[in-house]
Hints:
Blueprint: H1 19-39, H2 44-53, H3 59-76
Amino acid sequence: MKCSICNREVIDDKSELCLYHSECYKKIKSSFEVWRLAYGELDWLNYLQRVDERPETGIWVKECCELLKKKKNYENS
């Protein structure tokens, strides 16, 4: 299978992401609680938007944020 973002090979049959995007996803997910505690009321979509807008955020993280925002919006519709 291919990565949902970049078409590289996925890391395993249970993943939709390549090694690089999978690592970014893990970091995004693990940092959410830290951000939520620091900012108070912060939901997942606002968190993703803030991470995406930061100038120091790398392209792979931005790509993951975009994918996660699309998935969340799809789930809510």
